[in-house]
Amino acid sequence: MGMLAGASVAVAHHSFAMFDTTATVTVSGTVTEFQWTNPHAYIELDVPEANGVPKKHWSIELGSPSILQQSGWKYKDLKFGDKVTATLNPLRDKTPGGLLVSVKLPDGRVLGNGPGRGPAAPPAAPAK
Questions:
Q1: Which residues, at least 6 apart from 102, have a Cβ–Cβ distance to it below 8 Å?
Q2: How far is Cα 3 from Cα 83, in angstroms, rounded to an integer?
Q3: Alpha-carbon distance 89 to 70, whole Å?
Q4: Cα-based distances in Å from 19 to 11, 49, 93, 108
Q5: Under a CB-based contact definition with an 8 Å cutoff, are residues 47 and 98 in contact?
Q6: Using one digit for the tens of pLDDT, what is the confidence trace for 62-116?
Q7: pLDDT (tens digit per residue) in 26-44
Q8: Residue of 89, 127, 121, 94 lying closest to 105 (CA atoms)
Q9: Alpha-carbon distance 75 to 60, whole Å?
Q10: pTM of the shown model
């Protein structure tokens, strides 16, 4: 019985039901924090609004660091103050946040949310 209860907690923890995976939103803003943590990494992003409305803070969920590394991510790819453009599946409750699909980094690379989810890192250019 205890194993069954534990299994339901594990499944619930990894549910993506809170995200609208049929929709995408693209936001551009300034990184306030990049959390390279298990079980999920996060990008915290301040996004300016139009017409003088104060900026909104977005919390963007990513996969685990081990999954992200498989598609080219490194823990130091983002830092405070970086300007990025992120495409994500928004939260169903319409609060500012979502599940990352891809992000354009300050150096121009576009990374996804792990293998098979968004673009992979382009191969490194050979040294000259």
A1: 86, 87, 110, 111, 112, 113, 118, 119
A2: 45
A3: 21
A4: 16, 22, 9, 27
A5: no
A6: 999 999 999 899 999 999 999 999 999 999 999 999 999 999 999 999 999 987 6
A7: 999 999 999 999 999 999 9
A8: 121
A9: 16
A10: 0.78
